[in-house]
Design a protein that fits this description.
The chain is of the alpha/beta class and 194 residues long. The protein has one domain (3-106, 147-189): Anticodon-binding domain (Rossmann fold, 3-Layer(aba) Sandwich), CATH 3.40.50.800. The chain is built from five helices and six strands; from the N terminus they run αββαβαβαββα. Strands 1-6-5-4-2-3 form a six-stranded mixed β-sheet.
Amino acid sequence: MNLSRLAVLAVTTLVVTACASVSVTNEWRDPGWSGPPASNVLVVGVARGDTTRRIFEDTFVQQLHSAGYQAAASYASIPPGSDGSAKLGELVKHTGAEIILVTRLQRVEQRVNVTPSGPGYGGFYGWYGGAWASTPSVTQYEVVTLETSIWDARSEKLVWTVTTQGLGTNDIPKATQQLAATLIPKLKADGVLR
């Protein structure tokens, strides 16, 4: 197997397997917001592609249901390609949502990691031959930064927001499950969810 194929295999493996972690990089909570904690959530995914939006919203809603919360996806009432502002208010009333969870992509960064592999031992001549034979390991990957905001449906004010980072993947359901697994406990601990 030549080095370029090996590098592609390593990158593919890294992207598929390493997307298992999502980390919170920044967070803010309105110090003046006293709740009460919510049990009914409207989920809004901001995406250019309607398929991506639907998959994200359905998956996050399912994760909220699994955690014992009421939740609804916005796509059923807000058509693709429109800002949906007028219909959003109607949807909040119709679903009884207490908070609105909105997630949007902030940026995608391409990163490269070069790890040199050292030459072997065995004196200068063994070291010198090993130095020529060894090649560095190069991996390329994407880091995806998302912003998730919570809006109080009653006051229409922003009450909580975080940015998260994770490795890029084309598996939207899995990435959404990982995001939900990171955010739902945090929302509960911060008193935003019951």
